[in-house]
Design goal:
The complex is a heterotetramer, with two copies of chain A and two copies of chain B. Chain A is of the alpha/beta class. In chain A, about 45% of the residues lie in helices and about 10% in strands. In chain A, strand 7, helix 9 and strand 8 form a beta-alpha-beta unit. Classes of the chains: A alpha/beta, B alpha/beta.
Chain lengths: ~325, ~325, ~325, ~325
């Protein structure tokens, strides 16, 4: 694990571990519920990304806006979205982040700057460009962060967005979560060069390749990119290299993932690795760590039971939120 | 209000000036829109000088991200306009406009409306088949976005200002064949033309012609010609296609008991098919003839001036005569 | 011909095997389609092993260029298949598919047909509003491309083979709710199901239900339920939406004198609106009721299982009763 | 003007001059006809590109396929499309390359490998990728060339195509005609870096920046890229830097183009500059050059008169070529 001076505070490390663990635990439970057929939703696990998400949580403030993807659980938690609202959305309940109308791919929480999530690969990037333009027009001082996978670097929207951001020197941070798989295809099979940070350098913006399993390295890289954006000094591209520790979805087969590769990655599983380090460095004692862990488990359990206890949206909700005024939509219906 | 005679292009330009003066959250993005060009159709003339290049930005050629950046600006509290030079190029924006902007209010349970205004222009056959499509039906079929298409300078300005203040995303369609040919008095000040309100531009007792855009001039010409054979046609300019003023349409057809829908969009599954279906559903037993439709024939837009797939005055006259006889 | 019981997914896979065996110009492009995955819906299972990775290529995530490369392959004499994982993502391909592939024959005066086959899948509400749209109307409205949507395994294979031999570009739509749930005997050999030929899947004297895709099962269920109230519904599975078999539809409605069109696509300006308009135009004076339509309500697809905008058996039954009473 | 060993033959130089001049003369006449209102079509001049086009003409064979843009006159001539067919298309006549149904943005001639032209910026590139895949499947030996402007490097299709080409090592040559304007916007205003060849290098393919006003430099660069493709060694990106010597279209105002910049570029106007060089180097005598010139003028005049004498397509042509079989389309029509 990298260290730097001055390192994050004791409190910060605690928050980071808590966030990593919350992410991992909520993730595992969501996948298990999906596998059991109790959660009837496409769920995209975030296992492997916990370190990056913890760093995002530490660096970002409410006024910084984030655009995320379908693989958004860690991002949402990092931004401060309550797990209760997230889970209620996954279960299609009216108390979900999106009144149950969006579902797991469409979480949002405007109160904490979790602006939007999209289910279409790459489509968050142009939106982040626009948000960063808005921040710049507002006078600056905040960062827009967009997260996306390695596979998203193949799509046109990525290119266009990087270009706009560089041209207009926009306060945006491109966070590429390189888990080395684009759905079921390994990066080396779809990319002529797997050095994504290096490729991105052609856009005339700073780009950094970061060990995405190392929370402190993630923290340092993100902090400087976000600071740069807050000072309105322009965009940064960060490539966080880690590994997908699960299947593509909560229920997907991933027997095709090379066993050794996965095992090697598993050795660096962010939350347990960080735990070990925190203890080894005597930053926390075993009982302190266990206290966090029990707190996390309670928090996650509560969110799931809350979600399942929430009411469903009323039938009339079908017609609202298409337009601001539901009259015309209602008039088209026989029902 | 003081009025000036303007082309549609000038009226749109005047609309932009009024809107940007009134609301400093309005920003415009598009190719070549800043000075010295002011847009290839001159509709953004003077804007970048008056309001600055930060609010009126000429962009790289990248329609998807012009639209996507507009979506982001809207989520960030701005009122963005994304100019897409030709309607055909909206094919490059549909993920952002129809998967995102049109659905963001719904998918967030109301939290993130994305009121962008996408403006675009239908070309003519001089440019060939990739610069002349009328694609409003795609947008009307996809819930969550307003669709307007003015036929004259006054509406052109008023509808633009309406889109720019609507809480919902809008598609604003202009037609290059009208931009400079239609002139008329236009108030210099700020005003809006309501969404979902059709205008009856000619009264008549024998048949209702429902139309919009280039179809309006065409239908009025046809109506004049039809008086010769004693047929008085009522002509309705829909102006806004989503929401669509079915009330005005039904009220008129209830009186005339006959109807034809005219538009430049392809007839097959064009806007006229929905209007026709609803008239039959709602006025069953009251019609004297089936609702007729005159739209583009089922072909790409041919280049040669010897060929046209678009509605003509003749085709409208013939169809009306067929229905009224 | 020897038959095997297959799911629709297996029938499609069998179709690919037969086609690629018969014609070595067929190449398939798409995300995750090669082994060991064989496509996220398993429809290309085994193909890359059997025919090699040059003919069955897993691509980068770039729908526009998957489609565009298919267009180039077609111009280069090949018979490409471009698999677009979810229908919603075709928004990223429309420039290539509708501005180019669908128009290339016309714009070249016949010299450069571009017979690509784009295959895609409609998702379900489990994925939310960006993975569940039915967008066939956009394609039907745009001249130059076939549109097919099978409702059962036999047609799924036969229509695929037809698209792969058609001289024109085709959109082949599968529905994820049918891929594994519909099973039936399917010939193992090569055969084709003709374009523009509807299938009458149930005979009845009181009303004609015109439908396709998921609407077929729904309508058959509704028909069974309706026998209880003494109503015998004829059910027509269109199978191919462009060209569309108006002949079979008109012939049936002429007998039953009533019709309802059922589809999962949005009702407003959906395929049913064209069918309804044409029935009224062609069978004026012969209908006992206006043509009814049951399509998706005018909303994005809601995620929560408590909400649905899609047609249901109940809605079909109710609409039929309303028309027949 | 650059020289190389062995230089092009006497005959080749003659062909190149002839092609440059034919392009320039036909171009000027088309613009004049459009300005006079006699040619009712959007015409996109190619003045400034003559050297690149002449080199394309010299290097490419019929079995090499080309995809071009709306700015296609020089490309079509380079590929060997008869000017008569081109002009007949511009005038919407049935003897045009596309039976008058496509118009100037949609020229094609399959007999010479002028495969397709597109009016949508960037859209030719994915199509070229597919053609190169076809060539590779056919066993190789030919090159696919796609031409596009500097402005097209901003669009997603460019990125996706470069990526596919590099990934699959496709025999395609990307010919970027950098005339330093994207419609009415100068390159420095829309691109964060104006070094297009350098940017393209991030795709892991050879990229070369070439003086696009120098026909011999163009020839050398194209020859090696095309040879590489013919040997199935993979894609090349060539940036030809020249300048747009006219307005964006035949009728467009271009008073906004900086006077000195244009004047400086005009000094390198390809055809007259090459003429001067050919005479200075005593490659041709004045009478020889004049003979070519009079031949070219006759050729161009003939093509225009031919075009205007051709019949228009018959009304029934409206319905043909939508599908192979016109029956269904015909059945939908009232006419
Ligand atoms: C435009 C688009 N194409 C395809 C998909 C289907 N899909 C969902 S996730 C995914 C893989 C994306 O890979 P990557 O960007 O690396 O993100 P990861 O899933 O690995 O986090 C694909 C292809 C999609 N959602 N959007
Ligand atoms: C996708 C798309 N957007 C916009 C246009 C309108 N347009 C036509 S040419 C052009 C400029 C293209 O610039 P460049 O690629 O440098 O080519 P050039 O015209 O300079 O040869 C534009 C924006 C178009 N045809 N296609
Ligand atoms: Mg990935
Ligand atoms: Mg240029």
């Amino acid at each position: 694990m990298s260290t730097q001076t001055p390192g994050p505070s004791h409190e910060a490390l605690k928050r980071m571990y808590r966030l990593m663990l919350t992410t991992a635990v909520a993730d595992q439970k969501s996948s298990a519920e999906a596998k059991a057929g109790r959660l009837a939703a496409a769920f995209y696990p975030v296992r492997g990304m916990e370190a990056v998400c913890a760093a995002l949580g530490e660096v970002l403030r409410s006024e910084d806006r984030m655009v995320s993807t379908y693989r958004n659980l860690g991002d949402a938690l990092a931004k401060g979205v309550p797990l209760r609202s997230i889970m209620a959305e996954l279960y299609g309940r009216v108390d979900g982040t999106s009144r149950g109308k969006g579902g797991p791919m469409h979480l949002q929480d405007q109160s904490v700057g979790f602006t939007a999530t999209t289910g279409v690969v790459g489509s968050g990037m142009p939106i982040a460009v626009g948000l960063a333009m808005a921040a710049q027009l507002d006078g600056g001082g905040s960062a827009t962060v967009v997260t996306f996978g390695d596979g998203a670097t193949s799509i046109g929207a990525y290119h266009e967005s990087m270009n706009f951001a560089a041209l207009w020197n926009l306060p945006v941070v491109f966070v590429c979560q390189n888990n080395q798989w684009g759905e079921h295809t390994p990066i080396a099979q779809y990319a002529p060069s797997t050095e994504l940070a290096q490729r991105a350098a052609s856009y005339n913006m700073p780009t950094v390749k970061v060990d995405g399993f190392d929370p402190l390295a993630c923290l340092a890289a993100l902090q400087s990119a976000v600071d740069r954006a807050r000072r309105d000094e322009g965009p940064t591209f960060l490539e966080f290299v880690h590994y997908r520790l699960t299947g593509h979805t909560g229920t997907a087969d991933y027997s095709y993932v090379p066993k050794e590769e996965l095992a090697k990655a598993m050795e660096r599983d962010p939350a347990p690795t960080f735990r070990k380090w925190l203890l080894e460095q005597s930053i926390f004692s075993e009982p302190e760590v266990e206290a966090i862990e029990s707190e996390v488990r309670t928090y996650v359990e509560d969110a799931f039971s809350y979600a399942e206890s929430c009411p469903f949206p009323a039938p009339e909700e079908l017609y609202t939120d298409v337009f601001a005024d539901p009259t015309f939509v209602r008039s088209l219906s026989d029902a | 209000m003081p009025e000036t005679t303007m082309t549609m292009a000038a009226a749109i330009n005047s609309g932009f000036h009024c809107a940007m003066e009134a609301d400093d959250k309005i920003v415009v993005l598009g190719e070549d829109i800043a000075e010295p060009i002011g847009g290839v159709f001159k509709t953004s003339k003077g804007l970048s000088t008056r309001f600055g290049e930060r609010r009126v930005r000429s962009t790289p050629i990248a329609e998807g991200t012009i639209a996507g950046a507009a979506v982001g600006l809207a989520l960030g509290g701005y009122r963005p306009v994304a100019e897409i030079m030709f309607f055909d190029f909206v094919t490059l924006t549909l993920d952002q406009v129809l998967n995102h902007a049109a659905k963001f209010r719904y998918m967030s349970g109301g939290a993130t409306p994305a009121p962008i205004t996408m403006t675009t222009t239908i070309g003519t056959s001089h440019f060939g088949a990739q610069h002349a499509q009328s694609l409003e039906a795609w947008f009307m079929h996809t819930p969550g976005i307003n669709v307007v298409m003015p036929s004259n300078p006054v509406d052109a300005k008023g509808l633009l200002l309406t889109c720019l203040t609507s809480p919902d995303p809008s598609l604003y369609i202009q037609h290059s064949a009208l931009l400079y040919s239609r002139k008329g008095p236009v108030p210099e000040e700020y005003y809006t033309t309501p969404l979902g309100k059709a205008a009856t531009v000619r009264s008549g007792r024998d048949i209702t012609v429902v139309t919009y855009g280039t179809g309006v001039g065409l239908s009025l010409e046809a109506a004049e010609e039809l008086t010769g054979s004693g047929i008085e046609a009522e002509v309705i300019d829909l102006r806004s296609l989503m929401p669509l003023d079915f009330g005005t349409v039904f009220e008129s057809v209830e009186r005339t008991r006959r109807c034809v829908v005219v538009h430049e969009a392809t007839q097959f599954l064009g806007p006229g098919s929905e209007i026709s279906s609803r008239i039959h559903e709602n006025l069953w037993g009251e019609l004297l003839a089936p609702v007729g439709r005159v739209g583009a024939e089922f072909t790409p837009v041919p280049f040669s001036k010897a060929l046209t797939n678009h509605p003509t005055v003749d085709r409208v006259v013939k169809k009306v005569q067929e229905l009224v006889c």
